[in-house]
Write a structure and sequence with these properties.
The complex is a heterodimer of chains A (151) and B (505). Chain A is an all-alpha fold. Chain A has helices at residues 3-26, 40-62, 75-95, 97-112, 117-138. Chain B has one domain (2-494). Chain B contains 22 helices and 2 strands. The two termini of chain B are 32 Å apart. Classes of the chains: A mainly alpha (151), B mainly alpha (505).
């Protein structure tokens, strides 16, 4: 168990609980057809979350901080793929499904492990075109199609 | 009985057979691949099935989708044994115990028999639990029909207590996750009064957080992110499979363990909170206790494979009972199945058998057929499935991200949900890596609106008097059971005894 993370998480959940409590006070209290207004349930839950967070905070004081074997984490790989995924989401609608998916997969494959670029291109092309063809052409679903300047 | 026959008629329709086959096929693959458990597998496939069935009528679409998704669920239980035996790396947590004896058998060159017995045991257990499901479904849902809002509220509290009490190492953390899930479920328009809550005029939030986005993010993406960060690789060679047909002696030796494992697994499966993992654990310990040669366990005895594999399959069948008859999912995976059903406007629970008999009985009948398919898939074709293990993560992980994004976008058609998906992916990784269990969160998210509605209906009937939950006898008993469920492990911990917990459901 990681003490620092537990503390940060606890404080975050404490804040979330308080936030829900305060915000639920702003919801209108009366509701037609129900004695108990829409504010009661979230308020109670917020309160319980606050109490539980305090309990966990005390628990984190008690247990000894353990330092397990630190594994080497691949932060660089993770961030590259994660940020690529965010760009994927942003660009999905402007430039279409096939191009963004193809690019995301190429970058993803190459970040995981460099090399065999042709195999990456073939798999990425098969997936992006295959999904688009199956879903849009056969099942008549909607996906952002090609960008205007390509049509 | 006529209902079951009708169910077979539904399940034997060509497209449903295809869906069942696809489900068990993907399920086996999910079970074989380390890193993707049944939970992330089912979550990942909800949007895919939703888009596949988009041309169907609503009720038909629900039946076909749930047939496929349930197929993934029990198919994964079969597939999980394959990697345990061949690689000593369990494909999912319910097969951890199988590795103890299974890998030893593989080392002795008996991998084929171990795999075969695992498949036969899983099949027998699947059938046993299904027969029990058929027998218990009607009476149980009749009891549940008599429940009022107060009883329902207490029943759902019991469900939450059971899952939170058994999930993860820290009960406080499990409860925090449950409450957090319940809180997330209050975002959006209040279904009783129509008041917007916690939406801050963001139009995407009026419908509430989409269950699908949260589930795929937490489980599928969370797992992928973890795999990328730790770059797990197994370099152990795969054991040779050898002869597949088990000898008559081995069959005789494993008949008892299979029967006991099936029954025990089924009973454990019905209990909310205790899932397939605990079932396989218990049955292994039971076999070791009653065996004439307990020293053989851990050194490659066939009973050590047969019992846990039967138990985890029977448990996955047993877990369907509270889901279908009471509408209370007992584990993370069944919570996801329930969320999938609710996406199609099919509400699991006592009314399911009256309102949607084709969905309920079609699903049950398809599980019979699916189990037969799995037996065929897992006996002669096990060598092909063993090849899946060699899929390089280099290609697998980015593809899973791409499938998640496609699935969420196909159903929601907004980029907002993709960002939400990525956010929950990071959250899922962070929480799971620090012992915050995810199953209670999903359970809270699914049950939240129902708990709130029943609570408010009960309170409206009693004019806001909270004592109504104690005054009704059934509700009182259920609440006491919920309290005991939390209190007993707590007291045992105080006495210094270790409590077995479910690491992953």
């Amino acid at each position: 168990m990681n003490k620092t993370f537990d503390r940060i998480a606890t404080l975050t959940f404490l804040a979330i609980g308080v936030l829900f409590m305060i915000e639920s006070l702003r919801i209108s209290k009366s509701a037609y057809g129900s004695v108990v207004g829409p504010n009661v349930f979230p308020f109670l839950l917020g309160l319980i979350l606050v109490l539980l967070s305090v309990k966990l905070l005390f628990e984190t004081m008690r247990y000894p901080s353990t330092h397990g074997e630190k594994q080497r984490m691949q932060y660089k790989k993770f961030w590259t793929i994660f940020i690529t995924a965010i760009f994927y989401a942003i660009l999905l609608e402007p430039i279409g499904y096939v191009i963004t998916t193809f690019l995301f997969l190429i970058i993803g494959f190459q970040t995981m492990e460099k090399g065999s670029i042709w195999k990456s291109i073939i798999i990425a092309a098969c997936f992006s075109l295959g999904v688009y063809g199956l879903y849009v052409k056969m099942l008549q679903g909607t996906l952002p199609s090609w960008p205007i300047w390509l049509r | 009985m006529t209902f079951l026959l009708d169910g077979f008629q539904t399940a034997l329709q060509l497209h449903n057979l295809f869906f069942a086959f696809l489900g068990v096929l993907i399920g086996t693959a999910v079970g074989v691949l380390p890193g993707i458990g049944p939970m992330s597998g089912v979550a990942l496939l909800i949007p895919v099935t939703a888009s596949m069935t988009s041309g169907f009528e609503p009720a038909q679409a629900a039946t076909s989708s749930i047939i496929l998704l349930a197929g993934v669920y029990y198919g994964a239980m079969y597939g999980g044994s394959t990697t345990s035996i061949l690689l000593n790396t369990p494909g999912e947590s319910s097969s951890v115990v199988t590795a103890l004896d299974g890998y030893q058998m593989a080392k002795q060159g008996r991998a084929g028999s171990a795999l075969a017995i695992a498949a036969i045991g899983s099949f027998a257990a699947g059938i046993v639990s299904l027969i029990a499901l058929v027998l218990l479904a009607e009476p149980l849902s009749n009891v549940a029909l008599k429940f009022g809002p107060a009883e329902y509220f207490s029943l759902m509290i019991l469900g939450l207590a059971a899952v939170s009490g058994l999930a993860g190492n820290s009960m406080t953390k499990a409860w925090m996750m449950t409450v957090f899930g319940l809180l997330l479920s209050t975002i959006g328009l209040d279904s009783v009064s129509g008041v917007a809550r916690f939406t801050y005029n963001i139009s995407f939030l009026y419908g509430g957080l989409e269950f699908l986005t949260v589930a795929v993010g937490l489980f599928a993406l969370g797992e992928v992110f973890k795999a990328i960060l730790y770059n797990e690789q197994n370099n152990d060679g795969i054991a040779k499979i050898g002869r597949i047909i088990p000898s008559r002696e081995e069959l005789k030796e494993s008949a008892g363990p299979i029967a006991r494992g099936s029954l025990l697994g089924f009973l454990v499966g019905i209990l909310p909170g205790a899932g397939a993992t605990l079932a396989s654990f218990f049955s292994y310990m039971l076999e070791k206790k009653i065996s004439k040669h307990p020293e053989k366990f851990g050194k490659g005895t066939i009973a050590g494979v047969a019992a846990p594999e039967s138990a985890n399959n029977a448990a996955s069948g047993g877990a369907m009972i509270p889901l279908l008859t009471l509408g209370i999912p007992g584990s993370g995976t069944t919570a996801i199945l329930m969320g999938a059903l609710m996406m199609y406007n099919v509400q699991p629970g006592p009314l399911l058998f009256d309102e949607h008999p084709d969905v309920a009985w079609g699903l049950i009948a398809s599980m019979f057929i699916g189990n037969i398919m799995l037996l065929i898939l897992n006996m002669p074709l096990v060598k092909i499935f063993a090849k899946i293990i060699e899929t390089p993560p280099k290609y697998l992980l980015p593809l899973i991200i791409a499938i998640s994004i496609f699935g969420v976008y196909a159903v929601q058609v907004t980029t907002f949900d993709i960002f939400l998906l990525l956010g929950f992916g990071v959250l899922g990784y962070l929480l799971a890596a620090h012992d915050f269990p995810l199953a209670p969160l999903v359970l809270g998210l699914v049950l939240g609106p129902m708990i709130e509605n029943n609570m408010r209906r009960a309170l409206t009937a009693s004019n806001g008097d909270f004592l109504v939950f104690i005054e009704k006898p059934i509700s009182f008993v259920l609440l006491i059971a919920a309290i005991l469920w939390i209190a007993i492990p707590f007291l045992m911990k105080l006495k210094g005894k270790s409590v077995i917990v479910n690491e992953d459901m």
